[in-house]
Amino acid sequence: MGDFLRVNMAPVMFAALVLFLLLGYPVAFALAANGLFFALVGIELGLFQENFLQALPERIYGTMNNDVLLAIPFFTFMGLVLERSGMAEDLLDTIGQLFGPVRGGLAYAVIFVGALLAATTGVVAASVISMGLISLPIMLRYGYDRRLASGVIAASGTLAQIIPPSLVLIVLADQLGRSVGDMYEGAFVPGLVLAGLYAGYVFLVTMVKPERAPGLPPDAQTLRDADGQTRRFSLLVVTILAFAVAIVYMKYFTKVGAGADFVILTMSVAVAVSFVIALINRLLKLNLLSRMTEQVIFVMVPPLALIFLVLGTIFIGVATPTEGGAMGAAGAILLAIGKKRMTFDLLRQATESTAKLSAFVLFILVGARVFSLTFYGVNGHVWVEHLLTSLPGGQAGFLIVVNILVFLLAFFLDFFELAFIIVPLLGPAADKLGIDLIWFGVILGVNMQTSFMHPPFGFALFFLRSVAPRTAYKDKITGKMMEPITTGQIYWGAVPFVVIQCIMVALVVLFPQMVMHYKSSGVQLDQQQINKQLDSISIPGLGGSGGLPGLDLNAPPTLNLQ
Question: pTM here?
Answer without folding.
Answer: 0.81
